[in-house]
Design brief:
By secondary structure, the protein is of the alpha/beta class. The chain contains 11 helices and 11 strands. The structure holds S-adenosylmethionine (SAM).
């Protein structure tokens, strides 16, 4: 039996999602707004695990069905599938009746609702991460003058691990004045990031030396499996071409040699994973848009665990997340005292000889399309 309350919550979530899509995402705005008025469709989310009952799961289940190549008239409205999508309108131009039918009747869509969890991996976040790691490598104890110390990366909430491959991508940092700064020009995937504010980030002048890399995730995406790789795309907004193109290019680059991502809980596993970093390398644990998925108590537990590791081994923790969503973590404020409203904060925490220090490195767009560097130049 579905409680009235639960059904109301589902339609309310779709209404909120539709509002978020207003303006830039016409397809998902229409589909979410129509689902909010159609309890039978919204209730399809009850097939999903209670933790996964979010509008994005239903939208992704239908998107994935279409991406898998199923012939259905709904395809015509998806910019991620056809090169000249139909404009979303009313009457014959309305995608809703086709979406409704798939959501209610298609066994493949129902199966995805039962078994999948929403999953993304945003490689754009590597653009702010690169100078953060470059700064750690040059300032780490044991780095030769003018050189770098090798790093051992441990990513928490790594998803498919695409951000562990940040040294395979090229970067283009666009300044408001002066030419753009290119790092690894000519790379097959170039991530562009606009620089804001007066300070230049410490961009690497040579390759990062990565001695090891490993990730952990509750639900790792295995890029060896075509269906899993496609699901990553299905969880993106079909109207957002740039993001989808980036993800497709990164998946293609990773395909032959994906990074290792183990299944497990970040707080429980981080100690073993840091133990696996070779002695000559500095362990760098990083987490982008993952900490806010932990309860405040678990956030505090994670930082305490890193502190425990930091008493016996030098260690750096880099995280990017929305400060109001991190009540269990003491996020350092911006140096100019401006409030944390919309941006993502990029923070570095070092433990050196057991002493902890925190620095707010930058504020950035959640997907890394811009950053304002606030931290040290190295
Ligand atoms: C929004 S995604 C971000 C993925 C990736 N870090 C990125 O920036 O593209 C959050 C990820 O954290 C994972 N996650 C959430 N809680 C976790 C936990 N306790 N331990 C490990 N992974 C977790 C989710 O499965 C998901 O893959």
């Amino acid at each position: 039996m579905i409680g009235e309350r639960e059904a109301d919550d589902l339609t309310a979530m779709f209404r909120e999602f539709a509002q978020m899509c207003e303006g830039g995402l016409p397809l998902y705005h229409r589909l979410a707004a129509a689902t909010a008025d159609d309890r039978e469709v919204a209730d399809r989310l009850l097939l999903a695990h209670p933790d996964q009952r979010q509008p994005m799961l239903l939208l992704a289940a239908v998107h994935d069905h279409l991406l898998a190549g199923e012939e259905d008239p709904l395809r015509q409205w998806y910019p991620s599938i056809v090169s000249r999508p139909r404009a979303v309108g009313s009457g014959d131009d309305d995608p809703w009746p086709y979406f409704r039918r798939l959501a209610l009747d298609d066994p493949g869509v129902a199966d995805r609702l039962r078994t999948r969890s929403t999953q993304t991996n945003e490689v754009g976040r590597c653009a702010p991460l690169l100078p953060a790691l470059a700064g750690v490598a040059t300032s780490a104890p044991g780095a030769p003058p003018g050189g770098v110390r090798p790093l051992g990366l441990v990513e928490l909430g790594a998803s498919a691990g695409l951000n562990l491959l940040l040294d395979r991508y090229g970067y283009r940092y666009v300044r408001s004045a002066g030419p753009a700064i290119e790092v690894v020009p000519g790379a097959p995937l170039v991530l562009e990031c606009a620089l804001r504010g007066p300070h230049l980030p410490p961009l690497p002048t040579g390759p990062l030396h990565l001695a090891s890399r490993v990730g952990v995730d509750l639900h790792p995406v295995d890029l060896h499996h075509r269906d899993d790789a496609r699901w990553l795309i299905a969880c993106q907004w079909p109207d957002d071409h740039d993001r989808i193109d980036r993800a497709r290019a990164a998946i293609a680059l990773a395909h032959g040699d994906p990074p290792r991502v183990v299944a497990g809980d970040a707080v429980t596993e981080v100690g073993h994973l840091v133990d696996g970093v070779p002695d000559h390398a500095l362990p760098v644990v990083f987490a982008t848009w993952m900490l806010s998925y932990l309860s405040p108590d678990r956030q505090a537990e994670l930082v305490a665990e890193l502190g425990r590791i930091g008493t016996s081994r030098d260690l750096t923790f880099v995280y990017a997340d929305h400060p109001p969503r991190l009540p269990g973590i003491d996020v350092p404020p911006r140096p100019d005292g401006k409030v944390d409203d919309r941006p993502t904060a990029l923070v570095r925490v070092d433990w050196r000889d057991g002493e902890r220090s925190d620095v707010r490195l930058a504020d950035q767009h959640p997907h890394g399309t811009w950053m304002e560097w606030l931290g040290p130049a190295r």
